[in-house]
Structure formats: C-alpha cells, structure tokens
Amino acid sequence: MQLISFRSDQQECRVGVLLADRVIDLAAAAWHYGIDGNLARNMPDLIRACVDGKLVLQQLASAAPLAAIHELSTVRLEAPIMPSTILCAGSNYRAHNSEKANTPLSGKEPEFFVKTSDSVVGPDSAIRFDAALTQKLDCETELAVVIGKPGRHIPIESALDHVFGYTIVNDVTARDRQVRTASNGTVWYELGRGKAFDTSAPLGPVIVTADEIADPQDLQISTRINGELRQHCSTSDMIWTCAELIHFFSINFTLRPGMVIITGSPAGTAWSADSELGGVWAGGEGLVRATRYCLPGDEVECQIDRIGTLRNTIQ
To answer: What topology does CATH give the domain 86-314?
Structure first.
C-alpha cells in the first residue's frame, strides 16, 4: 500500500492512501465509519495507530465513502512524513566507498549522523542553493526505512519486524563543508554543517508499506540529474543491510514509530569527479560522469524500485 501526505484546496495537510489516480483521505474515511479520525491526522499518528491495532488500513481504503476520495490531479503531495529524527548511515555502499576520500573508519562502521524535520521538503519542492553555505552542492538517492514497532537493542534477526514501510530520501550534501583534510593528509568529515541544513532532505513521494517489499536488499536505485544517469545499482551493494542498521541505531536510541533511517548512497555522485576532495570516478555501464556540482535550474530525480521517483529542482 502507498501512503501519502497531501493538501486539497486550502485544507490542512492530510494523510491518504494512493490508489492509481485516486487519493483516499484516511481521516475522513475513519470518521465516516465511526472511528476516531484523529488517529490518522498525520503520518506518525497513523503509524502508531496501525502498530497498536486501532486502525486497519486495508479496511479503510477498501470501503472509503465518496466524500473521502480525491482525484490525484486535484491534490498536492507533501513529504509523506515529517520525522522528528532522521538517523543517517554514510559510506554504506561498497562502490561509493571506493570512489571517494575515506576516513580511518570508512567501511568499518556506519558513519552516524542526524538530520531533523527542519531539513525535510516534499516532492516537487525546491532544494535551496545557498552560496554562503556551499559551492559544492551534491545529491544522493537513498532508501529510507520508516520505523513502526518501537524497540531498543533490536536483534538483527527480528529487525525488519520493526519496519512500517520504505520511502526515498535525497541526502543533499554540502561537500566543501563535509570533507576536511589535515596538513598531514588525514581526511575527516564534518557531518553537521555538511549534511544538516534547510532543504537537505527531500523525502517521498510515498511510503510503501513493508508488506509490499519482501527484501529491501533487492531494489534498484538510481539518480538522474537533468536526465543524465549519475547513479545506478542495487541495494544489495550495501555494506550494512537495513536490518543491521536498525540494530546499530537501536543501540543508541529507542526507535519509535515514525523515525526514519536512511541507508547510504551508491557510487556516481559529483564528489567522485572532484579530485580536489579526493574523488575517484569509477564509471559504470550507462553512467554519466558529473562535470560539476548541482546549480540552480537543475532537476534531480531519485528513483527506487517499487517505491517511485522523487523529483526536486535546485533553486
């Protein structure tokens, strides 16, 4: 099932199910059948209600009244969820790890950083180019795991039981803020200013529920910038699987419904073509080597199998 957040006319943001070219307003459907529609007033509340058994999405979607149904062409999609916390794992694809300057810990443990909902924008929204922040704005398509069932110290073997669904995040990065080099040649990453800033986490367009994706390590992932294929590989190239990352992050945090984990990006970023920052372009069938970083006017398309395409423009 594909879940969205949307606006219709001047209404507040609502949560819905996307069925082909129709949108079902879940709160309206719930109220119609005598269920508290506040359980579906936003995506985190909906996830909690589903986990607690207070809402059954299939029942609401299959029996929605006409008043709860909108044509997709009449609504605007927003980011499907505004997570309080986005837990991020960098350097998590083998090919990407081999094309860039690496720190002493690269490839040995996940690069742990955090983004917040302040970084999030939705599909078709603008990614801001702020010249005072960066001259090297890069984009990276990443599979995002949306947590459903809460837990801490979650075993790898049962980690996927805690997944509500999956979506797409564009891990927008200020490379000249991220990559730092000491006088002795040692490289380190400043993952605060380099990763967390306004519009640095476009997210969407939908959350696909976990029952629709049997194996998150068997999805094709790609990035196109102005139509050029920059990244393309399978999530099987991850160093740490989704289950292993859930286990890893649950050592630090109690994972709660609506928290999001992003899982790293494939090779082919603009960084790989930037020798000043230690990039080493490896190429690949059909891939186009970047000649520059992102600039205003560029269109970025982040695509993942079974989820869809997240489109944003640089402004």
So the answer is: Fumarylacetoacetate hydrolase; domain 2 (3.90.850)
